[in-house]
Amino acid sequence: MSNLTFANKPIETTYLAGGCYWGLEDLIRKIPGVVNTEVGFSGGHIKNVSYKEVTRGDTGHAETIKIQFDTNKLSFKKLLLNFFKMHNPTTLNQQGNDNGTQYRSAIFYTNQNQKIVSNQVIDLIDKSLVWEKPIVTEISAFTNFYTAEESHQEYLIKNPEGYSCHFIRDFDFTK
User: What residue ranges define each of the domains in the chain, with the CATH number in brackets?
Assistant: First the structure.
């Protein structure tokens, strides 16, 4: 289920992966219209997976952010445009010094509109030429999400000196 009503607000859920989830979650939760974030794992073949298992790189899971957002304040397209400014979507299975399929760029869509918009946004960004290479972000139907351990939730709030390879780039995708 991707659409809910939360405190009389239309809430949509999506799942985005873009490298280490600590830094990505920290930036995404600050976007106006995002009402909740949670870090965990999606896209793999092992049920109830743990962080330690995912770090091995053989579970098929990506470090993922579950994002709930108020569609009256934030469109899925705008969320994705922000997402593509926060990580490098042109590096296969890598963000910064983190390497492996668990660090891949992925959109796990929860409805057909998210799938359509994902493809449109990637096409728009590729045509803008802000990245020198084409986007390699995986677009897959959402199948599962396993919440990471509590120590990983809002990690950079709990550990302000913690590691992050994410930052917001000053890109204009409409040129």
Answer: 3-158 (3.30.1060.10)
- What lies within 8 Å, CB to CB, of 70 at 6+ separation is 9, 10, 11, 33, 34, 35
Task: Please give the Cα distance from 126 to 112 (Å, whole number).
Answer: 21
Helix orientation angle between 21-28 and 76-86, rounded to the nearest 10 degrees: 140
Q: How far apart are CA 142 and CA 43, in angstroms?
A: 7
Given the residues 16, 17, 20, 125, the one annotated as active site: 20
Q: What is the pTM of this model?
A: 0.92
CB 12 within 8 A of CB 76: yes
Separation between Cα atoms, residue 19 and residue 39, nearest integer Å:
12
Confidence at residue 93, expressed as pLDDT on a 0 to 100 scale:
96
Residue 88, CA atoms < 13 Å, CB-side half-sphere: 14
* Separation of alpha carbons 116 and 130, rounded Å: 21
Q: With bands split at pLDDT 50, 70 and 90, how would you rate the model's confidence at 1?
A: very low
User: Would you call 165 a catalytic residue per the annotation?
Assistant: no
Tens of pLDDT, residue by residue over 8-64, are 669 999 999 999 999 999 999 999 999 999 999 999 999 999 999 999 999 999 999
DSSP H/E element including 160: none
